[in-house]
Amino acid sequence: MKQRILLIDTSAVLHTVKFSLIKQKISPREKSTFIIFGFLSKLQFLINKTRPNVIVFATDSKKSRRKKIYPSYKENRSQNSKTKEQITLDKLAFPQFEQVIDDVLPGLGFNNIFKANGLEADDIIAKICKEHSNSEIIIVSRDGDLYQLLTPSVCMLYPKNNQYYTYRMFIKEYKIKPKAWGRVKCVAGCLSDSVGGVSGVGIVRAIQYLKGELPKNYKTYQNIINKEGKKIIKRNKRLVILPFKGTPSFRIRQDNVSKNKIINIAEEYGFASILADLDSWAKSFGAY
């Protein structure tokens, strides 16, 4: 039986919880721990849904090696593009993000919380997928860049709607194999990361080009094969192909979650509902 790895894009889950805060009617006191509790509740749900043997949390570095290659990388995510409401929400949320990663998860006894200087969660996820190709892997993320990692034994689970996205579903949607997705992004660019592609070329045209179905007399075809197009594709290859060159390996260790650790975290953050249902939480988290 294959080992099953639950590979969590920690930031993706935290942001999912953050956006749910907008719709919640909670007291000012609850706001200071709402995201922490929401994350733990989501984690319990994900574990119960997927029944993994191993749980890995991948986190982003604050620094970015990609920005050195392409200064505009993720420029659309800067504070200047956010509304006042979003900035206020971030001020409430980001300290809790750090508490989850630096205090709560280690405090519970989860040992596979990985970060690499200058790299992203995507790189960590990709590296683990490549080095554990004999395992069954469930990636918790909504990041389309990760489609290139899909295989018959690697799927994605979207944190917002809890729906799976599989290798077969990708092929049905795009009519190419997932391993070609990185090359598509090299040509078309990546809007969500502010990575520019070849002029006039989107996902559809890039796929047509890679499949040899884009007529050579089309302007978009000429844009791809000319000197400037080749330059853009070469640059984007360093940005969008996962994992980023030089991503290190990560040694997966056994967790040591215990009931006492769950109690300590629940008491520290005032999570009475966890204490009231301790056996359920302990079972979900594999406590002993």
Note down, in words, how this protein is organized.
The chain folds into 2 domains: 4-174 and 246-284, 3-Layer(aba) Sandwich (Rossmann fold), CATH 3.40.50; 178-240, 5' to 3' exonuclease, C-terminal subdomain (DNA polymerase, domain 1). The protein is 49% helix and 8% strand. The protein is globular, with a radius of gyration of 21 Å. It has helices at 10-21, 28-31, 34-50, 65-69, 84-108, 121-131, 167-174, 181-188, 203-210, 219-225, 227-240, 259-269, 272-276, 278-284, and strands spanning 4-9, 54-58, 113-114, 136-140, 154-157, 164-165. The protein has a 6-stranded mixed sheet, with helices on both faces. It is of the alpha/beta class and 288 residues long. Helix 8 (181-188) packs across helix 11 (227-240) and helix 10 crosses helix 11 (227-240).
Q: In short, what is this structure?
A:
By secondary structure, the chain is an alpha/beta fold. Helices cover 49% and strands 8% of the residues. The chain has two domains: 210 residues, Rossmann fold (3-Layer(aba) Sandwich), CATH 3.40.50; 63 residues, Orthogonal Bundle (DNA polymerase, domain 1).
What are the defining features of this structure?
49% helix, 6 strands, 288 residues, six-stranded mixed β-sheet, DNA polymerase, domain 1, single chain, Rossmann fold, 14 helices, alpha/beta
The helix content, as a percent range, equals: 40-55%
Low-confidence stretches: none
DSSP summary: helix tally:
14
Write the element-wise H/E pattern from the N-terminal end onward.
Answer: EHHHEHHEHEEEHHHHHHHH
Question: What is the residue-averaged pLDDT?
Answer: 94
CATH class of the largest domain: Alpha Beta
Number of strands: 6
Judged by helices, strands and strand pairing, the structural class is alpha/beta
Looking across the biggest beta sheet, what order are the strands in?
Answer: 3-2-1-4-5-6
Task: State the end-to-end CA separation.
Answer: 23 Å
- Major beta sheet, specifics? 6 strands, mixed
Shape: globular
Percentage of residues in DSSP E strands: 5-15%
CATH superfamily of the largest domain: 5'-nuclease
The fold-level CATH name of the largest domain is Rossmann fold
Please state the CA-atom Rg, rounded to the nearest Å. 21 Å
State the domain count: 2
Which oligomeric state applies? single chain
CATH architecture of the largest domain: 3-Layer(aba) Sandwich
